[in-house]
Amino acid sequence: MVENLLCHGLPHDLAQRVECPTNIQGGKLNQLRAEQQRMFQNLTWKDLVEKGFVIAGSPRTVRERCEHMIKSLRVGHVFGLFHIGNMPDEKTRYSTKLFAERVMPALHGLWPEWKDDRRWWIKPYEKRVRPAASAPSARSEPKASEARAGR
Fold this sequence. Notes:
The chain is mainly alpha-helical. The chain has one domain (2-149). The protein has seven helices and three strands; from the N terminus they run βααααβαβαα. The chain has helices at 12-17, 21-25, 28-40, 45-50, 59-73, 89-107, 144-149; strands at 2-5, 55-56, 80-81. A three-stranded antiparallel beta sheet has the order 2-1-3. The radius of gyration is 22 Å and the shape is extended. The model is unreliable at 1-24 (pLDDT under 50).
């Protein structure tokens, strides 16, 4: 199973350098980008995993590393990317399924004091504008006359 968490995009020492807005305003972010680019040029997959840029492995390993990351960073929402490079669709789907079934349930209750806080959960938009029933679908094939006219 492979999952890449954006929270671990920077090593700890580099992340500390950009935590303050004055560093960003002072032009330090460009310096960080150049330094980070040089650092990534020679990293292997093993380096990415061992240095914490990527969380990957068995469901148990991913669960343990995610729990450590969540607790140490004190985050409640994590954005995971389960596809990397040219990974086949079926492997991505399998990895996502493993994560949903064997990792997420263990992480769900890490912050019990916030279990009823729904401020950040996705909710349906009450006044959603719905397209007219007669509007053509973006997936439908254009009529031959529209295709020739460049529409």
